[in-house]
Amino acid sequence: MSLETTATSLPEPLQVTAAAAQAGADAVRGQLRVALPMRHAGTHEVELRYELRGPEDAPVVFVAGGISAHRHVSASASFPEAGWANALVAAGRALDPARLRVLAFDYVGADGRLDVPIDTADQADAIALLLDALGIARLQAFVGYSYGAMVGLQFGARHPHRLRRLVAVSGAHSPHPYASAWRALQRRAVALGQLQCADAAGLALARQFAMLSYRTPEEFGERFAAPPEIVNGRVRCAAEDYLDACGAQYVARTPVTAFLRLSESIDLHRVDPAGVRVPVTVVAVEGDRLVPLADSVNLVEGLAGRGQLRVLRSPYGHDAFLKETDRIDLILAAVLHGKDGAAA
Amino acid sequence: MSLETTATSLPEPLQVTAAAAQAGADAVRGQLRVALPMRHAGTHEVELRYELRGPEDAPVVFVAGGISAHRHVSASASFPEAGWANALVAAGRALDPARLRVLAFDYVGADGRLDVPIDTADQADAIALLLDALGIARLQAFVGYSYGAMVGLQFGARHPHRLRRLVAVSGAHSPHPYASAWRALQRRAVALGQLQCADAAGLALARQFAMLSYRTPEEFGERFAAPPEIVNGRVRCAAEDYLDACGAQYVARTPVTAFLRLSESIDLHRVDPAGVRVPVTVVAVEGDRLVPLADSVNLVEGLAGRGQLRVLRSPYGHDAFLKETDRIDLILAAVLHGKDGAAA
C-alpha cells in the first residue's frame, strides 16, 4: 500500500512535511519544499522527494546512487516495484530493512525543472534539510555509489555531525579529467539533438556513450563478439541492439535538463578529503573507466587516518555496485555491522 | 618540386599509370584507376593515389596508417609539407628514405566518393594492383599502424608472395567488440548531425569521441586537471578547448562519407591469423583502449611460429605509434635491419 504526504501551502521559504506512516506500511514517501542556497546559482525553491523504509526506531542509513538513481531503492510491501538497488537492500543483507531504516531521495534537479548549475554541495545541503524535516539528528551511515559517493563526501565535509560513517563506492573527491571530457561530449550529443528538436535522439546517444564508460571491454568482448552485419548498406555492430535498448529506456524516464544538469554536477564536484571529518570506507573497482584506482588511493591518503580502501576487480567496471551485489554486501556488512554481524 | 602523373583515358577496367620521376625529384606522386572487385560491394572503379619516396633501386617498404592517414607519409624535397609520420620516415631512422623506398597511398574511400561498405581485404587488393602498376614484385616490408596494421594482415593473407615481412602496430586480426561499439556510436553522432544538415557538427563530435579512444586517462589527467568553468550558465570542462580543436581540424580535411565508410571498414575487418603466411612483428601498446593487449597476444598465438610480440607502455595509448617515435623506431630498426643495423 502506498502512502504519500505532500505539502500543499508554501508560505515560508522553508516549508516541510513529514510522512506519517499508516498502520502496516513498511515504507513511506513524502515530499517537501525547501529554499536551497546553491553554490553556483543563488537560492532556489526545490521539492525534495524521499522514501523511507524500515522500523521507525531503527538507525537510519542514507543510500544514494548514480545520477539516474532515485528515492525508490528497493521493493517493499508498500511500494512493490523493483528499486534501483533491490539486491542490496533486502532481508538478510547488510542493508536489511528489518534492522535499518533506509532513506533515499530524488536528486535535486532530477525532475528536470531546475535548469541551473547544480553542485554536489547543493545535494548534501538538501539532504541536511531533509533530515531536519524528518527529525533525524544523525545518520548511522551514508552509502553512496558513483554520484552518490561524491554527494556523501560533500555531506561528510559540510555536515559531519549528522553522520557516523560514510561508504563511498566508485566515486572520489573530484572527477577524473578524462571522465569529465567523456561527459562533456555526452552533453554535446544532447546539444546536437536539441539543435533540430531531436532531443530524444541526442539524449539516447549520450546515454549510449555513457554506457561505454560504465561497462568494460571485458564484458563487451564476451557479450558482443559476433561479427557485424550489413543492414541497408550500413555496417551494424553486434552491440548496437543492446545500446539501442539502453538509450530508449533512459530517454523514457529522464528529462533532458535533468541529465544535463546532473552530468555537469559530477564535473563541478570538488571536495578536499582533509575536510571530510567522518570515517570513510572507499570502495574502488579495478577496471572502472570513470574512477581510476589511483584517484581512490589519493582520496584515502587525503583522509589520513579516517579512510580505508577496499578494491574489487569486476568486469562490470563502474557498474559493479549494481552487479557485484554479493561482494558489495560483504563489504557493507563488515563496515556497518562488523565482520561478525554485530551492529557497529 | 612536386610531380604528379595522371591517367586521363580509361578505356579498360584496369588502367594504370606509373609515375616518372623528374631529374632531382626525391619523391613522386601518381594516381591510377583500377576496377576493384570488393568483398561486400561488387566491382567499383576507384582511383588509387600514391606517393613513392626514395632511391629507385632501393627495397620498397609500404607504410599505412590510421583511417585518417594518407599517401604523404613524410616531408621530402619534392613535397616539403609535413607528412603524417614525419618523425619515423627520416634520415637516420629505420625508415630512412636514403636507404629504402617508401610507398604509401590514400585509402580506398578516403576521397568520400565511394559510398559502399569497404573491407580491409579491398584495401589489400588495391595495394596489390598498385604494386602491379608500379612494377614492384615484392615489398621488403609492410609497416602498418592501426587500420594500416589490419590492412597489412589482409595483405599478408591474400598476397603473401608480394611481401617479406609485416610489422603490425596497434591493430589485430579483428576489432574488439567494445571498440566496435565505440565506433558505431561515432557513426551515430554523424547520423544525428546529418538529420539536420549539420554534417560538420556531427563529424566533429564523432572525432572528439574518437580522440578519447585514441588517448588515455593518464594523458588527460596531466593535461586537463583544471576545474571546469561555468560559461553562459553551462559547465565547460578543461579538455573542451582541445576537443574543439580536434574536431575542427578533422572536419576541415575529412569528407563525412570517408569517415563513415572507413570507420565501418575497421569493424568489418576479420583475418584468420593462420592464413597470414609471412613473418609478422606485432607491436602492442599496453593501455591502448581500442586494441587490448590480449587481442595482440591472440594474434601472435594464431600466427604460430611466424609471429613475435613487442609491447610498449605509453600514456598515448592507441596513438603511441605517432608519439613514441623513438621507441617505435628502435623496434622497426631491429625488425627491418637487425639489431646491428645490417639489412635483414
UniProtKB/TrEMBL annotation, chains A, B:
Stretches assigned to the AB hydrolase-1 domain = 84-324
**Keyword annotations from UniProtKB, A to Z:** Acyltransferase, Transferase
- Would the keyword Coiled coil be found if you checked this record's keyword annotation? no
Gene3D superfamilies reported for this sequence? alpha/beta hydrolase
Keyword flag Transport? no
Coiled-coil region(s) = none
One of its GO biological process terms is:
homoserine metabolic process
The EC number(s) attached to this protein equal 2.3.1.31
InterPro entries with a match to the protein in the record: AB_hydrolase_1, AB_hydrolase_fold, HAT_MetX-like
List, in alphabetical order, the Gene Ontology terms for molecular function in this entry: homoserine O-acetyltransferase activity
Q: Where is the active site?
A: S146, D288, H318
| Primary enzyme class | transferase
Quote the protein name from its UniProt record: Homoserine acetyltransferase
